[in-house]
Amino acid sequence: MATSLCYAKPLKPFSLRLPQTQNPQIPTQTTQIREAETLTITGPTQLSGHVPISGSKNSSLCLLAATLLCSNSCLLHNVPTGLSDTKAMLSILRSLGAKIEFNERNKEILVNTDGVGRVEPCLEEMRKIRGGFFVIGPLLARFGEAVVGLPGGCDIGERPVDLYVRGLRALGAAVEISYVFFSAFLPILSQDSAIRQEKVGDGRVLAHSANGKGLVGGSFHLDFPSVGATETLMMAASMADGVTVLSNVAKEPEVIDLARFLNDSGACVYGAGSDKLLIKGKCQLRGCECYVPPDRIEAGTFMLAAAITRSLISISPVTPSHLSCLIDKLKIAGCKITRCNNDTLEVSAIPENVCENLRGFNVRTSPFPGFPTDLQPPTMALLTTCSGSSIVEESVFDRRLGHVRELQKLGAKIQVCGSTALVFGRETRSALHGSQLRAADLRGGVALVLAGLVAEGTTQISGIGHIGRGYENLDTKLQFLGADIKRSIAMASQL
Ligand code: EPZ
User: Fold this and answer.
1) Is 13 exposed, middle or buried (0-12, 13-18, 19+ CB in 10 A)?
2) Please, are residues 459 and 486 in contact by the beta-carbon 8 Å criterion?
3) Ligand 1 touching residue 487 (CB < 6 A)
4) CA angle 157-159-160, nearest 5°?
5) 164 CB less than 6 Å from ligand 1?
């Protein structure tokens, strides 16, 4: 296997193979975390051992969308099949007419989109995830038309789609957003009456190639290096007629994974990982085989779990260069990070290594290679246990501090002003105490789990369906590391 963990190659005849489980203890069969369940954690606890990292959620979502570009089949390995987001994306592809073979045990998915006969995916599934919106690019590029619902996903900010719309228009698409309006006649007591229009329901984006033949190469500068808009425009441009130049694009590893997949399907994408992409459109792409790389955000979350519990654990597979910002911050705090081999990291924050306590540090989230916004909530949980105060500035999303209220219920001292939080640490680690909490989004939810691991007593977390969107087997993996964490069906009062 190539040094980098993501590889793709043209598809040879194959059969779905038996699984090679990395950790015989941790079951490959994932039991999906459901909305009506709660997690009960008893703390404080220390962790030890090794944790295997699943395939990347965010890479999988855009690679699955990209299969819509390919004639004949694509085989994806190491897909986090147990995530509800993955299942929603598969339902979106099926609703378009794609044929899907799914092997949960060995994390393999075979997708054939030759039978796609619709350009309007199931709205209900679209509303569940943000990544579903990415299909607008490949549908437009291959089928010349797309009607997609406005995306769902975590409620962490405005999250408009203006960059997608303007980018697709720059590639020769006619795009409009339509809402369903309800008009009401309201008699007003005084002079005259007024008509008030009420928007009822999510909008849809209707797009088709303006020339009726297909997309055309063009150039577009993104005002902000949006990951989703970059990935969607890359997919659209890979089958446009002519050359496309996209500038100020996202440089996230997931963008590089997609470029590798597209190039192995016969596309010509240059510059992935830099802030400019040059794409020579091709009239046809073919299916390929691809290995989904490990989830850098899951790996980062477990590194933070080791730090917050002052433990020593090893994590693999992980690509250290994908997490260099976090590694630097944890070292500043006093953690010892060791690279054991090509794709294994050992994180140690055990008291022997850390004098009195871990030191706080300041964080400002920004696009890759900056500090990942997806690790901001669990990092804040850690900072509530470090000595000294820390400033956390969320600069990517405008409403991603929802977890603060829940952490305060555990006794954390945090002050918020706009998108900046001042976190007052502690000289001694375990001043948090257990409480009843509610997860409101994916990464905010996992921050509560990490805080629950060190809070005195019992912490109960509801709304954990959010966590199951992005973490496979989180509770089982933590149990194998020694955590006292149980999943149970929530009583009606807890929902
Ligand atoms: C991707 O979301 C990830 N999701 C997010 O992970 C991640 O937080 C984010 O990138 C940033 O790294 C997936 O890949 C499925 P953006 P995306 O477009 O593409 C603004 C998780 O927890 N913007 O880079 O939606 C937007 O409002 C999730 O796994 C526009 O203004 O993120 C935001 O402020 C959460 N106009 C900023 O860009 C647009 O048209 C970054 O968003 C598009 C985006």
Assistant:
1) exposed
2) no
3) no
4) 140
5) yes
pLDDT recorded at residue 195? 44
How many whole angstroms from 227 Cα to the centroid of ligand 1?
A: 6
Give the CA distances from residue 13 to residues 16, 72, 222, in Å, rounded to whole numbers and listed in that order. Answer: 10, 12, 40
Buried b (16+ CB within 10 A) or exposed e, 343-365: bebbbbbbeeebeebbbbbebeb
Q: Residue 356: pLDDT above 80?
A: no
CA of 65 to the centre of ligand 1 (A): 16
CA atoms within 13 A on the CB side of 184: 8
Ligand 1 center from residue 404 Cα (angstroms): 21
Predicted confidence at residue 151, as pLDDT, reads 87
For 54, phi then psi, to 5°, come to -80, 175
Q: Does residue 374 have its Cβ closer than 6 Å to ligand 1? A: yes
pLDDT of residue 1: 38
Nearest atom within ligand 1 for CA of residue 159: 27
Tokens of 14: 């194959």
How many other CB atoms sit within 10 Å of the CB of residue 385?
27
- Mean pLDDT over residues 426-447, rounded? 87
Structure tokens at 462: 């509801």
Nearest to 118 by CA among 100, 141, 145: 145
Quick check: CB of 220 below 6 Å from ligand 1? no
Check residue 8 and give its pLDDT.
Answer: 46
Half-sphere exposure of 211 (CA within 13 A, CB side): 11
Instruction: Convert 433-450 to b/e letters by CB count within 10 Å (16 or more is b).
Output: ebbebbbbbbbbbbbbbb
Phi–psi pair at 40, nearest 5 degrees = -115, 120
Give yes or no for residue 301 CB within 6 A of ligand 1.
no
Band (pLDDT 50/70/90 cuts) for residue 32 is low
**pTM for the structure as a whole:** 0.91
226 C-alpha to ligand 1 centroid (Å): 6
- List active site positions: 154
